[in-house]
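Fold this sequence, please.
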Amino acid sequence: MQTQFKYNIDIDYTAIWTPEENGKFTIASAWEVIRKKRPKNIINKSVWHKHIPFKIAFFIWSALRGKLPTNEYYRSLEELKMIAIAVIERAQMTSNTS
């Protein structure tokens, strides 16, 4: 599919960035167009506060999302390690018999 476009040298063509009222492109306006907007979260506003140290805010934020490394997490890593060792040993046994 082709689109015909006739360029007229006598006409001054200007690009207009419609998200801005003045028609001029800015990085900030492009960011506003492409970013995913979510409703404001009161918890985030409370956690990420200038009077709360970053380490503490990050810890609270991680805890609220269930992302803290806990004993259960470490136990699952140990189980994964044991499975990986068993698979490697099995692969080595299979390659030795071939």
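Residues 30 and 36 are 12 Å apart (CA to CA). Residues 42-97 form one domain.
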